Amino acid sequence: MVPNDDKISQFQVALIVFLTPIGVGIFTLPSTLAKDVETNGWLSLILGGLVCLLEIYFICCIAKKYSPAKFTDVLKQLFGKFLGTIFAVIIFIYFLIFSALEVRLFAETTKMYLLYKTPLEYIIIPFLFLGIILARCGIEPIARFFEAVIYLVAITFILVFLLYLPKSDYSNLLPVLRIHPLKLLKGVEDSFFSFSGFEVLLLLFPFMRDSKKSFKVSAISIMLITFIYVVIFVQCIARFGVDYTKTLLYPTLSLIKSSDVPGAFIEGIEGLLFSLWIVLIFTTLAMFIFAYSVIAGDLLKQKEAKHIVILFLPAVYIVSLLPDNIASTFELVDKLIKSLGYFVILILPTLMFIVSKIKGERA
Amino acid sequence: MKRLMFVFLAMLIFAGCWDKIEIEDRIFVYGIAIDKVSNELNKSKGPFYEYVNENIEVTFLIPNPSKVVSGEQNVFENITVRAGSIPEAIEKVFKKQNRHLFFGHEKLLILGEAVLRDDKILKEIVDWIDRDPQKNRSSFVVATKDVKGIINITPKLEKLLVPYIIGTLKNQEEVSTLLNIDFNGFVSNFKVNGVAILPIINKVKDEGVIKNVFLIKDYKLLKEVDDRYIRGYSILTNSLKGGRKLFKYKDHVLSYLISNSHASLEAKEEDGKINFNVKVKMEGDIEDFILNEDLLKADIVHNIEKSIKEQFENELYETVRYFQDTGYDYLKLKDWTKKHQYSLYKKYEKNWDEAFKTAKFNFDFEVKIRRVGVVR
């Protein structure tokens, strides 16, 4: 019997780290990588995954030391009250904008592929409300929801693999490693940020029933994500070739679109896959909403995260409608990642790790 | 709060209503045929650019569901409009038909020769299909010299024209001198390099016959290539799926049914030229032979193999020479070199066409006859 104490098990942690990063980024990833590193995207994905593992290692080391303490308290202990609060605010803003952009990109994609005439606002609002309903229930219902949908996701991926494996030209992946190291670094950067979402792990430790294996389980999750990303990249390149993939906006969706099921007993499989994909985006959104509510709750010394969730809902909605068009949305995503993203998922865990080591030695 | 939530959730249900189109209000476009009929430029100076000229003629091939059900013979309806561009053509269809055009099941794109000669229109069409996520990316693309003729064919064994043409194209598996190109394959090369190969279908008497291919270069038609070079092209690009080769043996023209072919390339540089060594392994059966002559002897089979091998090699030399004369590397060797011999590729990348023209080729066929039928 699983106790109903708003704590999550290690398996649920693994699921959260696995399902949160996979969101709308997966649609555009192959074309970004093809643009920057051509055929070597798989390598940069693996390297990006390794960097990600390193960050997770840092996070787990910090957590081991300060385990039951809340994240904002840890920040305050490490950097002092003033700096700690500022960092927490930055992370809060990051999660808020990120959830807004996630919703916007989801709505744009849905509008383009499924609901052509439905106003953007009407796609965003119900989706946000659904996210809120889940997020305000707390971490345990979220984790249980994740447990419920993982089978759907697994079926989706297996379907996709089976459909595309035999029909593509894998020689498109050649030449291997013929690339300038600096360019490869750019690819690693792209890939690393495609994992963004794993940083919710920072907040999860106070909610864990037992955090001993958290590094192991999240590492497995990240490896699985890397594997899925690599497969999708390889499939896109093998199907379309590097030069054409570059020109596509959503290569992953085009890949799904260009499927022809052997035997052709069903057609238009993309509708099915797309609806399953919405679940993936929803998991990301629910987790991000929960993440910002936790931080804001700590900052405002408000114990009930429920109310915080709704308090900032208008902000999420407004930010999601800020960009004028799809191009400026992508620009904003880029800006967010280049500024806040760097800080939150790359610099902060490293900094926390270093400071905790220094402080630990002193103690 | 719960009631409020209920109201908000109700929005979920109604959110879909904007896109509601009843299935009987749709026109399922099965094929699109595009031809260019005039050369006028859009001379409009004012803010109105619509309905100024009618350069292209677009025909939407649409199955009529009620006719399909009642089992009538000709169930395709052609909706033809003249317009300046395809979006305008679609608009014009809306002006004369009550139903909505739906492109999700589009299976065939027929391009007239005149369209292929006009790079501007061709680019527009390709971009229009490529951009819209609704379009079917695995639809086939064919060229024709006579769009009107093609769309008015009444297939003999099929009810619908489009499956008839697609079925013929899919016979690539049976005929070695036939190519079928789907939109994915067409657009990737066309968009990036401005080149493509398209099979030609023409009306001969009352049938659609696929013969020859068009080469496209710089986004427009370059020339027509005879069927005889297609097998060589397929062998070199490893896209041969089946078919046969007729060969000469003792004054008889006999048939070798190819069941498997694999070409492996090697490239070397020799005195400023690229030297391609092509090894082809081929398996197949003998389909017909001379009556009452015993074929089932190892040395006879070996002789025939040798003779087929020589004839294949000659065919490939001819084919390569022909493509070298066109001035562009349609044989995808640039791609191959980039993938497998990157340093060589880097060296010749800038003037690849020249390098391809002067490249030398050596062919080495390994032809195997696996079966000879049930007669000795």
Oligomeric form of this entry? heterodimer
Principal-axes geometry of chain A comes out as globular
Q: Level of helix content of chain B?
A: 25-40%
Number of continuous helical runs of chain B: 13
- Parts with pLDDT < 50 across at least 5 consecutive residues of chain A: none
Overall mean confidence score, pLDDT of chain B: 86
Uncertain spans of chain B, ≥5 residues at pLDDT below 50?
none
The first-level CATH class name of chain A: Mainly Alpha
Total domains of chain B: 2
Topology order of chain B in helix (H) and strand (E) letters: HEEEHEHEEHHEHHHEEEHEEEHHHHE
* Radius of gyration of chain A from CA coordinates: 20 Å
Q: Biggest sheet of chain A: strands, sense, closure?
A: none
How many DSSP-defined strands of chain A? 0
DSSP helix fraction of chain A: over 70%
What pair of chains forms the biggest interface?
A-B, 35 and 23 residues
CATH-derived architecture of chain A: Up-down Bundle
Main location (chain B): membrane
GO cellular component, one term (chain B): membrane
Subcellular location (chain B): Membrane
Pfam families (chain B): Spore_GerAC, Spore_GerAC_N
Description:
The complex is a heterodimer of chains A (363) and B (376). With 363 residues, chain A is an all-alpha fold. Chain A has helices at residues 10-19, 25-37, 41-66, 71-79, 81-113, 120-135, 139-164, 181-194, 201-204, 214-240, 242-247, 251-257, 270-299, 305-311, 313-321, 326-362. The model of chain A has no long low-confidence stretch (mean pLDDT 85). Chain B is an alpha/beta fold. Helix content of chain B is 35%, strand content 31%. Chain B has helices at residues 2-14, 65-70, 86-96, 113-117, 119-131, 147-151, 161-170, 183-193, 230-236, 298-326, 333-340, 342-348, 352-358; strands at 26-28, 31-36, 56-63, 76-83, 100-102, 108-112, 140-144, 196-204, 207-217, 220-225, 244-249, 252-270, 273-288, 360-371. In chain B, the strands form four sheets. Chain B has a five-stranded mixed sheet, sandwiched between helices. In chain B, strands 11-12-13-14 form a four-stranded mixed sheet. The longest helix of chain B is centred in the last third of the chain and has 29 residues, at 298-326. The A-B interface holds A 112-119, 122-123, 125-126, 129-130, 133, 171-172, 174-175, 178, 239-241, 243-244, 247, 250, 253-254, 257-260, 267-268 and B 5, 8-9, 11-12, 15-16, 18-19, 104-105, 133, 137-138, 184, 187-188, 191-192, 338-340, 342. Chain B: Keywords: Germination, Lipoprotein, Membrane, Palmitate, Signal.
